[in-house]
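Sequence in, structure out. Go.
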Amino acid sequence: MLPGVALSGRPLRLRAWLAIPILFATAVLGLVAVLRLLIDAQWQATLSTALCGAAAGVTALIDVHPENWPNCRRRCLRIAYPTAIFVAGLLFGGFTIPTWLAIAIGLPALITLVIMCRQADEVADVEVSRR
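Output:
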């Protein structure tokens, strides 16, 4: 990805960007818990290092644009926050989440992510139609 370029054509606001890895990880945990119930599996939803690494990667790929921040401060945030998510995965990797809790937090997180993506697509469509 090119620096300063978001997939939708514009960077996310800071609060939305900070929520991305948490929403991503909880949505995946919720889907794993639902799958566990559907196939009657014996495993539990687990907050793994790999899941936190994927959440950090997704966060690193999305551009953020805090209002009135200098470029160096924004660059530091774009490096430090995904790194902190990854390190948290290293520290808390293997933490098992009860199925009911994973579903209770995961499905609303999934719905929130879908809404955020649809809003970003709508904004991108409006910006393209203006050109």
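Check: The first strand starts at residue 45 and ends at 47. The beta strands are 45-47, 95-97.
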